[in-house]
Write a structure and sequence with these properties.
The structure is a homodimer.
Chain A (H helix, E strand, L loop, with lengths): L10 H11 L4 H8 L4 E5 L4 E3 L7 E7 L2 E6 L5 E7 L18 E4 L3 E7 H10 L1 H27 L2 H18 L8 E2 L4 H8 L3 H13 L3 E4 L2 E4 L2 H7 L10 H4 L1
Antiparallel strand pairs in A: 1-7, 2-6, 3-7, 4-5, 4-6, 8-10, 9-10
Chain B binds a DNA duplex through helix 7.
Protein name (chains A, B): Crp/Fnr family transcriptional regulator
InterPro entries (chains A, B): cNMP-bd_dom (IPR000595), cNMP-bd_dom_sf (IPR018490), Env_Response_Regulators (IPR050397), HTH_CRP (IPR012318), RmlC-like_jellyroll (IPR014710), WH-like_DNA-bd_sf (IPR036388), WH_DNA-bd_sf (IPR036390)
Keywords (chains A, B): DNA-binding, Transcription, Transcription regulation
DNA sequence: CGTGTTATTGACCAACATCAAACTTAGTGG
DNA sequence: CCACTAAGTTTGATGTTGGTCAATAACACG
């Protein structure tokens, strides 16, 4: 788990993430490394950015888990995505001034805040990076679509299996998981808010998945014991993640 | 309705749409007008682009209604958005080579297919247009998020009211609707597939909305008789559409 | 006038929600 | 090292929204 302190600079995971979705030249890498930033820490449950804000900067997650959510009229919450180190979940604020949702820390989080001007200058100087950033936001959109399909049409069991597959692959892409299992710091309540279910039902379905021998989980630590079957149950096909290897 | 043939050139509604979400200079307008294209017609229900395709061009809808959908494992369909004249629903294919969903004609459709090279050249020459295009895909993503929230957490009644509000505003933005009502060429089956409901239930809820005096509908023609209450029932707040007037 | 699509109805059912309580677990401070 | 606490998980009983199935009615179109 994370007992070893992560001392790598903010941009290393960003580069790993960008390399998972496209090609990055050496010149681009050093430009990314030169980006100015301001580090900030957030305790669990704090908002990094809030619906209605007009942020002058984007946040690059350096450590910890973040979720994107919306509060609805009846006081309910819908979580719309999970983000991990290397992600810039509010990259969209470069072109959409007002946030239409909030970002919240699922664990203690360290984030590097990068001024919009710096990012605009970077994209102007490196069209390749602009294209990659655009591509990244397009992949986010593809993930929203997949979640929409899940919440709209898949059973509770499929939805849960599906999201486990997805997070696992995203973690692998930034070298935060391997076949030995991984740390999934998402409570059942949060899973419920992400999947449009009640926490009670999430709990029951999780037990089914364990009973079926698809996953083993102990606290926040999860092992996928039967990838193929989990994938089948979740109706999971990774192509919507548009990883370089699969998308080509 | 559409008994009057629409003779305006393909780019006029595109410009109207872009102006709804941002500013467009005269130079940019004429560059948009100069874009090469190839017109194609599709009958109701035909796919314009299909999941798995690697299209070399983007399609600008000139006339008719289009939906974006995915087929899931169990043979179910999830519709993920509706598109109307002026939209380029597969703009994302500029940076995501493989389509992860399909586009289908809800009515007979005319679309202008514009080669990727031409669009890339345009965005290179006019960074303002590149930004607008990016912004447009970001707004699409915002709409996916809103739908996700709806399907995840809102009641059937709220979802239906919500989508009627949304389509109405989008139609108004391209001057295809006014307070006198509008043509909504979406069957109840399609609504059901968009909202994650069964057609039977959509029918019943629609009747409730009519009984409550929120809408009047006769065939495909819809009149919103009480915007304020419809909006309240649908928990609708237009800010996620990021129209220029509201987003500022 | 048929004929196919879409809308509507009714009877019945299942997946998942809600409520409320108990149980675990991981921290925290004495 | 052991209470003590708060967060998260698990369980059981019961309720409801919305699904399924199947038949009928309205249209729209040639």
């Amino acid at each position: 788990m994370a007992d070893r302190k992560d001392v790598s600079p903010p941009h290393t995971r960003l580069i790993a993430k960008l390399e998972a979705i496209g090609r990055v030249t050496e010149a681009e890498k050093s430009a990314l490394a030169d980006l100015p930033y301001r580090l900030r820490s957030f305790p669990e449950n704090a908002d990094l950015v809030r619906q209605g804000d007009k942020p002058p900067e984007c946040c690059l997650i350096v450590e910890g888990f973040v979720c994107r959510y919306k509060l609805l009229g009846e006081g309910q919450r819908q979580i719309m995505s999970f983000h991990l180190p290397g992600d810039i979940p509010d990259l969209q604020s470069l072109h959409l001034r007002v946030m239409d949702h909030s970002l919240s820390a699922l664990t203690p989080v360290t984030a590097a805040f990068i001024p919009h001007e710096a990012l605009h200058a970077l994209t102007r100087a490196f069209p390749g990076i602009a294209a990659l950033f655009w591509r990244d936001t397009l992949i986010d959109a593809a993930i929203f679509r997949e979640w929409l399909a899940g919440v709209g049409r898949r059973t509770a069991k499929a939805r849960i299996a599906h999201v486990i597959c997805e997070v696992y692959l995203k973690l692998r892409a930034v070298h935060l998981a391997d076949d030995g299992g991984f740390d999934l710091p998402i409570t059942q309540v949060e899973l419920a808010d992400a999947l449009g279910l009640s926490p009670v039902h999430v709990n029951r379905v999780l037990q089914e998945l364990r009973a079926d021998g698809l996953i083993v989980s102990k606290g926040r630590f999860v092992i996928i014991s039967d990838w193929e079957r989990l994938r089948a149950v979740g109706d999971f096909d990774a192509s919507y993640l548009h990883f370089r290897s699969e998308a080509a």
